[in-house]
Amino acid sequence: MFRCLNEAMEYLTPEGLEKIKKELDYLKNIKRREIAERLRQAISFGDLTENASYREAKEAQSFMEGKIAKLEDLLRNTSVQKKEKTGWVQIGSVVLVSSNSHKEKFEIVGANEGNPIERKISYNSPLGQMLLDKPEGAFVEIDTPSGKVKYKIIKID
To answer: Which of 38, 88, 91, 156 could potentially form a cystine with 57 if both were Cys, beta carbons 3.0 to 4.6 Å apart?
Structure first.
């Protein structure tokens, strides 16, 4: 089973999609109001040419609007990958691998969801790329700074 991913498309798990929607909602409905209030206060101080509070609020507004635009664009170009039991590693899979007699478990997630502390690796990370579309029992080898590491896929959930 080989699935070709569209490079122009972003891929997310349903959990990742919810997280982005919540962040976007917060920025649009709470943060925008907070910055608008900061701007109103700064304008009330008068002379905008030497008003540091006004400049800071405008910069915060610009940064936030850029982030909103980026998140909206991400949502327009996202494919949500629902987890399916196929026996093959896919976005959303939890993969148990072994290497040199120690086992590790990773969840394969979208590029914007990776978090090594939570053991979530992006499908386009070096290890994610090697694991994607492989069946249970397959071996993959990855180059690391300390040399090549060989993993065996023990289980896919």
So the answer is: 38
Q: What is the DSSP string of 119-148?
A: TEEETTSHHHHHHTTPBTT-EEEEEETTEE
Per the structure block, which two tokens stand in for 32?
A: 């925008």
Summarised one tens digit per residue, pLDDT across range 86-143 is: 889 999 999 999 998 899 999 999 988 999 999 999 999 999 999 999 999 999 999 8
| Sequence-distant (≥ 6) Cβ neighbours of residue 134 within 8 angstroms | 88, 89, 140, 153
Going by C-alpha positions, the residue among 63, 73, 67 that lies closest to residue 35 is 63
Supply the pTM of this predicted model: 0.77
